[in-house]
Known about the structure:
Layout: H1 2-20, E1 23-29, E2 37-39, E3 46-48, E4 54-55, H2 66-70, E5 73-74, E6 82-85, H3 92-96, E7 99-104, E8 116-124, E9 131-136, E10 148-150, E11 156-158, E12 180-182, E13 187-189, E14 193-195, E15 197-210, E16 215-222, E17 227-234, E18 238-246, E19 271-281, E20 288-303, H4 315-319, H5 321-350, H6 358-371
Parallel strand pairs: 1-13
Antiparallel strand pairs: 1-20, 2-3, 4-5, 6-9, 7-8, 8-20, 9-19, 10-11, 12-13, 14-19, 15-18, 15-20, 16-17, 16-19
Amino acid sequence: MRRQFIVVALALLFVSAVAVSADEAVLMDFSLLKIDGVQDETTKQNTQNKATMMDFSGTAGASYTDAQKKQMRTSLAIPNWDVVLASSSRSNMNQALSMTAEVPVPEKAATYGGKTVLGVRVHFPVGSFNSWARVVPPFEIPAYEPQADIGDDGAVTAKKPEDQAQNGPNGTRLSRFEGSYDSNSKVTTAYGVVKNVGTIKTLAVTVRGLNFPEGLSVILLDADGNEKIMFMGYLNFDGWKELRWENPQYVTDVRNRELRIYPLYPKTTPFVKFGGFIITRDAADEGGDFVAYVKDVKILYDKATLINDGEDIDNESVWGIVGQKEAQRKLEESKRFGNQQVLRYMEREKQETSTEFASDNANASSTSSGNK
């Protein structure tokens, strides 16, 4: 009887140990998003991040020229990220002075020396009223984008399934924005998408504050497109710091959890996407410029299912349910982003680049000739 009691006690201890463990992933590492390719035809400077290139010209109509279609190619390069102010704060000056920047950390720096981080500048109104700004990627990060070859001109060519690297756990294939998996540390480093996520236990952001009183929140999207916002804390400190959000509803002991059985397919791989940041300013705080730097966003989470992609039947290849939903989202995104990029391109073509009047130069030349 005593032996049976010991066995039961050990089993309960094992269950508790399993319950408190969680998988770790770097949801977004901004040091991976630095500009490293795709030259601008005019300036001959690199403008994009090749690993995250997307081509939204596939749905463009025949009325678009080749030059316009090239504008529908973009990436998650840090300068491409948008800062969107609240409508009450979105004056021309405030919006023009709100932007993101690729910021290299000096090699000699004690923390993250030689890395690249996301720099954010927001110009809030000076008046005494609440405001906010969203720092968001240039497009919604796709969850099922296949691995691809990226040309020097930014052209994206998807790899065939047999040519894709089996770079995930247990020899599975990670999609392009899932990034890479380290078999030694068991950590996934992603470009904004982590799959097989059940309950998130902890969310962390590595940020450098400059004693601003503004608050920082993280936006996450689930597999159904629902937006969840977690408040991380205030940035009234100097230097690098890890802000953490601990899930207040996380239940450690599995005996206290509500156990349910769910259909496996097509919901075997729920995921989370990184949707950006929200920076909030209180009316009592001083307005004007705000500046901060972000290194990465990390999560600790429970697996949604223990079944991996190496099971005997590949349900997705037979039915394609998940892929059809993703394709529809990509089509909607391409219409939104592609049209927006073309309009921006056409607006740049219409812009006057000269800062002087040609008539003034002509008059100065004729006056000089007359004096002679």
